[in-house]
C-alpha cells in the first residue's frame, strides 16, 4: 500500500502516491494542521482548539475536536494508513515517519546541501537546495492564522529564505552571476533589510561588469538602514564594498571553485613574515585577573590541548580571549591566527571556507588550495606541523565547526570562545566565565564613564552595576551611554534602569545592545527550548530545580530542553541543594528579556504554563507533608490543579521532607505570589496552606503570615470564600503564637462563619479549635471548653488525628481549671487516639502536656518519664520548637526537685532555640526560671 504523505509547505494537503486527498470540512483540515504542527508529539485539546478557532472557540469545542479527529481517522483508515492518530487522555498524537511530512523532508535536503558544500561539492549542494525549495507550494500552513501556526510559519519561512540565499550563493560560486541577477533584484525588493541578499546582488553585479551599479546598491542599503533602523551596514557588506572599490581580483568568478584570494601568485610561500591577525586589544579591559592567570597557564602548557572559554551572552568571552592571546603571543614566534566563526549568526561559517582563509594566511595561494574539506585540513595540518602558532577561534557554534581547524601537533595552541559548552571536543579544557565581581563592575564603569563621576555618586554607581546584573556588556553599554551624555548624573541612568519593564531597552548605545546579544543566543535554540526559556522568565527571580521545565512545556520530562539551555549558557547552575537536586537560575537581565519575549506568546498559553508549574509545586508540597506530623491546621483539599512531575522528582523529598521544605521555602513563597499575580486564587490559597505544617514545625511565622496575606488578597478579590476561610484560620494561629489574642479571635470567628457558609464542617471545627486555644491562653476557660466540645461534635469521629489534638487541648483546659481527674481522662483518650492512628508527634505532645498533671499530683518521677519520652520523640522528628518547649518543662520539674544543674542545662538549651525563633515570651519564662536557680545566664539580655 502506498504511504500517505502530508504537506504544510503551502495549504494543508495530503497525498497517496500522486493522488491528492480531500479531508472534507475546513475545520477538519485545521485539526489536521494542529496535529501536523506537532507531528510525533502529543497535542492537548486546548492547543487544537486554539488552532481551529483562535480566540473565539464555541462552547462545544472539545466535542467538535473529538468528532473531527474521529472523521480524520476514518479518512486515513480508508486510505490504508492504519491508526496513525493516537489518543492519550486528553491529548492526540499523529504518528509519522520523517519522509511523510514535507517540512521534515525539506530540512533533510538542507542538511544534505550543507554537508555537500562543506565537502567542497557546490554542484551537489545546489541540487539538494533545488529539491528542498521545490517542495514549497505557497506560504506554510496557508490560510491559517492561529498563534502557534504563525510562529511555525515564520520559522519555516526564515529557513526557506536562508535556503534561497544559499542556492543563489552557490550559483554565484559556479559562475552563474548573469542568470541570478533578476532573482536577486526581486528578492532584494521583497526583503529590503536582508543584508546578505544585498551582498549577493552587489557581487553578481560586479562580476557582470556593472561595478557602478554594485556600489549604488551599497549606498541605497546604507540610506535604507539609517532611515529604518538607525544603524550602518554590517561588516560583511562594508568589506565587500571596500573590495569592489579597489577592484579586488579575488572577487572574480572561477566556475566550480572558490574565487582566489588576494595576496600573490598561487602556491606562494616562504619569505613572508608570520601572520599576526589578533584583533586590537580592548584598551579599557577590566578585571578578570584570575581568568587571565588560568589562560596564561593553559596556553603555556607544552601539550597545548584546546582551551574553550564559554559563558553567557555579554559576559566578555571575546575580550578576555583577545587579552589572553596578546599576552601569550610572545610564546608563538610563528604567528597568531584569528578567525571569527560566526557561530551565533544565522549562517555559521563552514570549516572548508575557513580552512581556505587559514591556508592563505600561512602563505598558500590560489590553485594550491585544494577543493575538498579533508584535503584542505590535511594541507593545513602539514603546514603547521613544525610551527609554533597561536590560533584564536572566536564565536564557535559547535565542536563540528572547530575540529577541522585544529592543528595536528602540540606545537600550536588553540583558544576558542563559544556560548555553547563544547563538551564533545575531545581533550579540550574549559574555562567558564561568569559575571563581574562588584568591584570589577565599578572599575569598568569608572574607566568608561569617568572616575570622578563614579567617585561623586558611589551609591548610584553600585545601583547601576546591580541593575546590570554585573554583566560586562550591560555595564559597558550603560557606561558608554553616560560617557556620551556628560550632563547626566549617574542617578538619571540609575532611575531609568530601576524600571524593570524598560531596562533591556535602556541598555543600548549605537549599534551595541544587550537585547541584540541575547537575541542571537535565543534564535539558535530549538522551538521547545526557546519556549522553555521564555516561560522560565515568568517564574520570577529565584533559583529553581530542573524539573520545572517539564510542567512549563506541558511534558513529564524535558531534560533535553534543559540541557539545550545549559549548553547555550542561558542558564546558570548555582549548586546542588540539600536533597540532591541541581539548582539553576536565569541572569537578571536574561530573565527581563525572557519576560518581554513571552509577551508574544498567547496569554492563555502563558497562564496554563504557570498553572502547571504551580500545580507541580502543590503536588510536591503535599507529598512532603506526608512525612510531617498531622496538624489541626491543615486546610483540606481544594479544587486546584495538581501536576505530578514524576517519581524521579518525588523520590528525593520522601526520606527528608524537612530538608526539601528548607530548600524550597523561598520558591514556595514566590509560588504563592505568582499564583496571586496570575489571578489563580485557588492555587494561591492551597499553596499557602500546604506549607503551614512546615512553618508550624519550624516556627517560621514571618513567612507563614506573608504567604497567607498575599493569598488572602487574591481570594478576596476573586470572591473565593472557602479559600478566605482557610487562610484566615492560618492567620489566626499565627496571631495566637504572637500573643495578639484580640486579632486572633476576630480572625478565627470570621474563618468559622465562612467555613459554616461553605458547608465545610471540618474547616469549621479547626476554626473552633483555634478559638478554644485563644480563650484558654487568655484564661477564659469556660469559653475555651465550649468551643473545643463544639469542634468535637462537628468532627464526630471523622478525623481522629485532629480529634486527638482537640481532646488534648480539653485536657489542658481542665487542668487549668483544677479538675485534675477530668483532665486525666481527656489526656488518656487523646493518647489512645494518637497511638491508634500512629501519630507519634501528637503522642509526644500529649505526653508533654500530661506531665503537668503529674506535677500537680506531686509525682515528679512520672512527669519526668513522660517528658523524656516526649523529648526523645521530638528530637527524632527534628522538631526544634517542640524540643525547646519540652526542655523548658523539664527545667521546671528539675527545679522543683532541687536538681539545679539539670534544670539550668535544660533551660539554657531551650532558650537557644527560642532566641533564634524570636519567641520573647518563652525566653522571658526561661530567664525567670534561671533567676530562681540563681545562674549567671539569667543576667544575659534576651536576643
TrEMBL record:
<dbReference type="GO" id="GO:0003677">
    <property type="term" value="F:DNA binding"/>
</dbReference>
<dbReference type="InterPro" id="IPR005158">
    <property type="entry name" value="BTAD"/>
</dbReference>
<dbReference type="InterPro" id="IPR002182">
    <property type="entry name" value="NB-ARC"/>
</dbReference>
<keyword id="KW-0238">DNA-binding</keyword>
<feature type="region of interest" description="Disordered">
    <location>
        <begin position="254"/>
        <end position="281"/>
    </location>
</feature>
<feature type="domain" description="OmpR/PhoB-type">
    <location>
        <begin position="1"/>
        <end position="96"/>
    </location>
</feature>
<dbReference type="InterPro" id="IPR001867">
    <property type="entry name" value="OmpR/PhoB-type_DNA-bd"/>
</dbReference>
<dbReference type="Pfam" id="PF03704">
    <property type="entry name" value="BTAD"/>
</dbReference>
<dbReference type="GO" id="GO:0006355">
    <property type="term" value="P:regulation of DNA-templated transcription"/>
</dbReference>
<dbReference type="Pfam" id="PF13424">
    <property type="entry name" value="TPR_12"/>
</dbReference>
<protein>
    <submittedName>
        <fullName>DNA-binding SARP family transcriptional activator</fullName>
    </submittedName>
</protein>
<dbReference type="InterPro" id="IPR027417">
    <property type="entry name" value="P-loop_NTPase"/>
</dbReference>
<dbReference type="InterPro" id="IPR051677">
    <property type="entry name" value="AfsR-DnrI-RedD_regulator"/>
</dbReference>
<dbReference type="InterPro" id="IPR019734">
    <property type="entry name" value="TPR_rpt"/>
</dbReference>
<dbReference type="Pfam" id="PF00486">
    <property type="entry name" value="Trans_reg_C"/>
</dbReference>
<comment type="similarity">
    <text>Belongs to the AfsR/DnrI/RedD regulatory family.</text>
</comment>
<keyword id="KW-0805">Transcription regulation</keyword>
<feature type="DNA-binding region" description="OmpR/PhoB-type">
    <location>
        <begin position="1"/>
        <end position="96"/>
    </location>
</feature>
<dbReference type="InterPro" id="IPR011990">
    <property type="entry name" value="TPR-like_helical_dom_sf"/>
</dbReference>
<dbReference type="InterPro" id="IPR036388">
    <property type="entry name" value="WH-like_DNA-bd_sf"/>
</dbReference>
<dbReference type="InterPro" id="IPR016032">
    <property type="entry name" value="Sig_transdc_resp-reg_C-effctor"/>
</dbReference>
<dbReference type="InterPro" id="IPR042197">
    <property type="entry name" value="Apaf_helical"/>
</dbReference>
<dbReference type="GO" id="GO:0000160">
    <property type="term" value="P:phosphorelay signal transduction system"/>
</dbReference>
<keyword id="KW-0677">Repeat</keyword>
<keyword id="KW-0804">Transcription</keyword>
<dbReference type="GO" id="GO:0043531">
    <property type="term" value="F:ADP binding"/>
</dbReference>
<dbReference type="InterPro" id="IPR003593">
    <property type="entry name" value="AAA+_ATPase"/>
</dbReference>
<dbReference type="Pfam" id="PF00931">
    <property type="entry name" value="NB-ARC"/>
</dbReference>
Amino acid at each position: 500500500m502506498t504511504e500517505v504523505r502530508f504537506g504544510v509547505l503551502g495549504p494543508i494537503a495530503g497525498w497517496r502516491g500522486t493522488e491528492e486527498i480531500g479531508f472534507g470540512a475546513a475545520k477538519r483540515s485545521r485539526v489536521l494542521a494542529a496535529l501536523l504542527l506537532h507531528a510525533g508529539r502529543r497535542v492537548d485539546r486546548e492547543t487544537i482548539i486554539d488552532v481551529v478557532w483562535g480566540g473565539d472557540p464555541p462552547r462545544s469545542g472539545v466535542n467538535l475536536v473529538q468528532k473531527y479527529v474521529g472523521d480524520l481517522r476514518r479518512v486515513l483508515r480508508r486510505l490504508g494508513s492504519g491508526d496513525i492518530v493516537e489518543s492519550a487522555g486528553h491529548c492526540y498524537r499523529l504518528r509519522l515517519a520523517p519522509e511523510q511530512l514535507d517540512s521534515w523532508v525539506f530540512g533533510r535536503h538542507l542538511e544534505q546541501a550543507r554537508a555537500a558544500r562543506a565537502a567542497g561539492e557546490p554542484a551537489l549542494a545546489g541540487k539538494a537546495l533545488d529539491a528542498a525549495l521545490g517542495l514549497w507550494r505557497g506560504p506554510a500552513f496557508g490560510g491559517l492564522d492561529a498563534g502557534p501556526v504563525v510562529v511555525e510559519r515564520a520559522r519555516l519561512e526564515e529557513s526557506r529564505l536562508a535556503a534561497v540565499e544559499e542556492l543563489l550563493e552557490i550559483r554565484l560560486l559556479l559562475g552563474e552571476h548573469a542568470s541570478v541577477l533578476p532573482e536577486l533584484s526581486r528578492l532584494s525588493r521583497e526583503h529590503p533589510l536582508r543584508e546578505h541578499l544585498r551582498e549577493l546582488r552587489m557581487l553578481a553585479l560586479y562580476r557582470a561588469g556593472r561595478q557602478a551599479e554594485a556600489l549604488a546598491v551599497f549606498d541605497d542599503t546604507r540610506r535604507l538602514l539609517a532611515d529604518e533602523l538607525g544603524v550602518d551596514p554590517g561588516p560583511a557588506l562594508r568589506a565587500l564594498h571596500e573590495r569592489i572599490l579597489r577592484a579586488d581580483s579575488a572577487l572574480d568568478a572561477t566556475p566550480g571553485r572558490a574565487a582566489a584570494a588576494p595576496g600573490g601568485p598561487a602556491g606562494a610561500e616562504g619569505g613572508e613574515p608570520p601572520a599576526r591577525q589578533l584583533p586590537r586589544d580592548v584598551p579599557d579591559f577590566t578585571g578578570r585577573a584570575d581568568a587571565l592567570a588560568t589562560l596564561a597557564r593553559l596556553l603555556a602548557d607544552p601539550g597545548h590541548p584546546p582551551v574553550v572559554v564559554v559563558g553567557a551572552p555579554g559576559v566578555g568571552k571575546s575580550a578576555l580571549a583577545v587579552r589572553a592571546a596578546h599576552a601569550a603571543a610572545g610564546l608563538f614566534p610563528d604567528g597568531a591566527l584569528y578567525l571569527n566563526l560566526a557561530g551565533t549568526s544565522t549562517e555559521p561559517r563552514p570549516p572548508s571556507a575557513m580552512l581556505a582563509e587559514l591556508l592563505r594566511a600561512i602563505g598558500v595561494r590560489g590553485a594550491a588550495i585544494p577543493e575538498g574539506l579533508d584535503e584542505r585540513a590535511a594541507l593545513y595540518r602539514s603546514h603547521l606541523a613544525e610551527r609554533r602558532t597561536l590560533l584564536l577561534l572566536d564565536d564557535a557554534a559547535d565542536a563540528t565547526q572547530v575540529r577541522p581547524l585544529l592543528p595536528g601537533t602540540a606545537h600550536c595552541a588553540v583558544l576558542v570562545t563559544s556560548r555553547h559548552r563544547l563538551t564533545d571536543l575531545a581533550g579540550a579544557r574549559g574555562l567558564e566565565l561568569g559575571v563581574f565581581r562588584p568591584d570589577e563592575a565599578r572599575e569598568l564603569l569608572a574607566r568608561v564613564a569617568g572616575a570622578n563621576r563614579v567617585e561623586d555618586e558611589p551609591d548610584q554607581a553600585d545601583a547601576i552595576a546591580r541593575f546590570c546584573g554585573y554583566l560586562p556588556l550591560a555595564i559597558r553599554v550603560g557606561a558608554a551611554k553616560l560617557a556620551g551624555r556628560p550632563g547626566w548624573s549617574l542617578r538619571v541612568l540609575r532611575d531609568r534602569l530601576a524600571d524593570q519593564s524598560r531596562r533591556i531597552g535602556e541598555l543600548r548605545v549605537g549599534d551595541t545592545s544587550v537585547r541584540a546579544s541575547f537575541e542571537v543566543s535565543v534564535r539558535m535554540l530549538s522551538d521547545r527550548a526557546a519556549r522553555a526559556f521564555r516561560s522560565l522568565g515568568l517564574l520570577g527571580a529565584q533559583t529553581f530545580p530542573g524539573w520545572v521545565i517539564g510542567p512549563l512545556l506541558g511534558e513529564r520530562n524535558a531534560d533535553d530542553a534543559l540541557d539545550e539551555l545549559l549548553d547555550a549558557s542561558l542558564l546558570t547552575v548555582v549548586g546542588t541543594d540539600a536533597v540532591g537536586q541541581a539548582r539553576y537560575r536565569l541572569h537578571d537581565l536574561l530573565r527581563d528579556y525572557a519576560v518581554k519575549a513571552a509577551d508574544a506568546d498567547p496569554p492563555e498559553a502563558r497562564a496554563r504554563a504557570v498553572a502547571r508549574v504551580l500545580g507541580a509545586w502543590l503536588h510536591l508540597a503535599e507529598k512532603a507533608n506526608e512525612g510531617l506530623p498531622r496538624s489541626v491546621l491543615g486546610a483540606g483539599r481544594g479544587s486546584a490543579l495538581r501536576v505530578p512531575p514524576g517519581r524521579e522528582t518525588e523520590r528525593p523529598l520522601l526520606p527528608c521532607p524537612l530538608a526539601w521544605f528548607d530548600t524550597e521555602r523561598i520558591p514556595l513563597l514566590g509560588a504563592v505570589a505568582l499564583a496571586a499575580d496570575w489571578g489563580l486564587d485557588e492555587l494561591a490559597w492551597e499553596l499557602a496552606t500546604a506549607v503551614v505544617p512546615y512553618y508550624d514545625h519550624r516556627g517560621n511565622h514571618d513567612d507563614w503570615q506573608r504567604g497567607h496575606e498575599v493569598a488572602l488578597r487574591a481570594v478576596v478579590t476573586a470572591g473565593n470564600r472557602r479559600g478566605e476561610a482557610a487562610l484566615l484560620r492560618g492567620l489566626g494561629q499565627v496571631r495566637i503564637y504572637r500573643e495578639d489574642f484580640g486579632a486572633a479571635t476576630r480572625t478565627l470567628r470570621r474563618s468559622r462563619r465562612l467555613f459554616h457558609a461553605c458547608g465545610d464542617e471540618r474547616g469549621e471545627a479547626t476554626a473552633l479549635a483555634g478559638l478554644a486555644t485563644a480563650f484558654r491562653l487568655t484564661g477564659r476557660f469556660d469559653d475555651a471548653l465550649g468551643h473545643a466540645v463544639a469542634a468535637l461534635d462537628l468532627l464526630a469521629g471523622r478525623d481522629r488525628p485532629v480529634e486527638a489534638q482537640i481532646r488534648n487541648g480539653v485536657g489542658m483546659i481542665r487542668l487549668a481549671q483544677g479538675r485534675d481527674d477530668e483532665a486525666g481522662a481527656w489526656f488518656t483518650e487523646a493518647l489512645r487516639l494518637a497511638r491508634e492512628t500512629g501519630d507519634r508527634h501528637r503522642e509526644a505532645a500529649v505526653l508533654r502536656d500530661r506531665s503537668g498533671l503529674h506535677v500537680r499530683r506531686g509525682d515528679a518521677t512520672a512527669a519526668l518519664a513522660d517528658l523524656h519520652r516526649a523529648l526523645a520523640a521530638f528530637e527524632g522528628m527534628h522538631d526544634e520548637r517542640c524540643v525547646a518547649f519540652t526542655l523548658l518543662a523539664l527545667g521546671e520539674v528539675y527545679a522543683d526537685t532541687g536538681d539545679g544543674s539539670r534544670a539550668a542545662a535544660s533551660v539554657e538549651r531551650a532558650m537557644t532555640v527560642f532566641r533564634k525563633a524570636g519567641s520573647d515570651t518563652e525566653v522571658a519564662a526561661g530567664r525567670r526560671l534561671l533567676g530562681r536557680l540563681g545562674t549567671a545566664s539569667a543576667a544575659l539580655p534576651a536576643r
